[in-house]
Amino acid sequence: MMPSQKERMLSGKLYRAADTEIRAVNFRARRLTRLFNQTTEEQMAYRQTLLKELFLKTGSEIYIEQPFHIDYGQHTTIGEHFYANYDCIFIDTAPITIGNDFYLALRVGLYTAGHPIDAAIRNEDLEYGYPITIGDSVWIGANVVVNPGVTIGSNVVIGSGSVVTKAIPDNVVAAGNPCRVIRPITKEDQDFWAKQKADYVADPDVH
């Protein structure tokens, strides 16, 4: 039996998006994101219901600022304690998998979709997608683009404006276009921020 266009899409093979099954999943995501983007601050429980219906799987805590856009939703898995700021876009042609304790700043794009470099093939409306996988405890700065096929490790900070084209290992600060490792995250970083937290806790105006 020949694979469907959706099966080809999810396996990283060339496919055509103008397919009945694929369009049905896309229309579902458009409807749910439209409803989500139209909710008010008095409808927080309804927002959670919509998001949990939209994504393949989420943790118990998920918070997304409006507006938010996604192609399919059913291809995206999100862990516990997830936050995305305004104007984030997920193109989940291929699976997007995100770990726990994850922060997205403004206008971050996670883009799994690609188009052939050869113009003749591209003009036949053939496209492909490669998965994006992101670990735990990651903070991605504003206006970052994560390209198809990228893996980002755990305990990572991606600087604002970066274009991530290759894998980023655990425990680093990375930035640039193309994004590259700037330095490791060290015990000195941990000590510095532990001191900042201690000062915060000791501040009588905080409580």
From TrEMBL:
Enzyme Commission number: 2.3.1.-
Maltose/galactoside acetyltransferase domain mapped to chain residues: 6-60
**Keywords (A to Z) from UniProt:** Acyltransferase, Repeat, Transferase
User: Which Pfam family, any one, appears in the UniProt record?
Assistant: Mac
InterPro entries reported for this sequence: Hexapep (IPR001451), Hexapep_transf_CS (IPR018357), LacA-like (IPR039369), Mac_dom (IPR024688), Trimer_LpxA-like_sf (IPR011004)
- Provide any one GO MF term from the record: galactoside O-acetyltransferase activity
Q: Which family does it belong to?
A: Belongs to the transferase hexapeptide repeat family.
PANTHER family reported for this sequence: ACETYLTRANSFERASE YJL218W-RELATED, GALACTOSIDE O-ACETYLTRANSFERASE
Q: What is this protein called?
A: Acetyltransferase
Record organism: Agrilactobacillus composti DSM 18527 = JCM 14202
